Amino acid sequence: MPGPITKTVFANAPFAILETPVYAQKKATGKKPNDQYAEAASIMVLVHNVIIRGLNSIYKQAPHVKPEDYADFISYATCWYEFTDNHHNNEDESIFPTIEAQTGEKGVMDEDLEQHRAFIVGFRALKSYLDSVAETPATFSGAELLSLLDDFAPQLHHHLTDEIPRLAALSRFGGKLFMLKIIEAEGNRSAQALSKTGAMIFFLRNSDLEFEEGLWKNWPPIPGPVRWSILKTLGRWHVGWWRFASCDESGRMQQLYAGN
């Protein structure tokens, strides 16, 4: 008799992965647009999708983690928090003020700042919970973690989705705003701020290099051998954490570890 049917689970739900403006235009016109605003908004999508894949991987696996894996899963979820927190802090402290300064339009990014405030209480509550169970991993509860995520994750995903067309709409400022340079500079700044054996590896292990038919396989702009070296050296420090990642070391979406 055949064995039981098992469902292959990936981190592509419950929160939808976003499409880049560049890919959408390429599908519509047959060629990649030469537009700094579409490119900048697309890079932001790639960052947001790392957050979303990480969120999905936590959400789907939390109820199925075995007690002996609690400590690793808690640390993995904490890396997601660090990456997401770093991203939004950089927006609040640097990206949005720079956009405002270059455009001369005060409050141009206020809607995004308001959306950040809409989920911050629940977001911080998650961190408090992760800190508390990190001290006593046996007290971890997947159900409690899901309840905390449900308190803010829909608003977070709404913001991650909404921000993209607003960034693309900044094209109304034309050459006055150096949008692509702003996004690229902040990418470098973020990379320096992330913990090298934690959130940095989280970032790489939740970046799908096959996304949108491999259009973004060279993003982030890290040479393949260097990327591989980082994963094989710094990634070995906490190897147990990355079992829960949405992608394997080669940058391909992988079947989720817990619950399959």
Automatic annotation (TrEMBL):
It holds the Pfam family Hemerythrin. Residues 42-163 form the Hemerythrin-like domain. Coiled coil: none annotated. It comes from the Eukaryota. PANTHER family: EXPRESSED PROTEIN (PTHR38048), HEMERYTHRIN-LIKE DOMAIN-CONTAINING PROTEIN (PTHR38048:SF2). This is Hemerythrin-like domain-containing protein. It comes from Talaromyces amestolkiae.
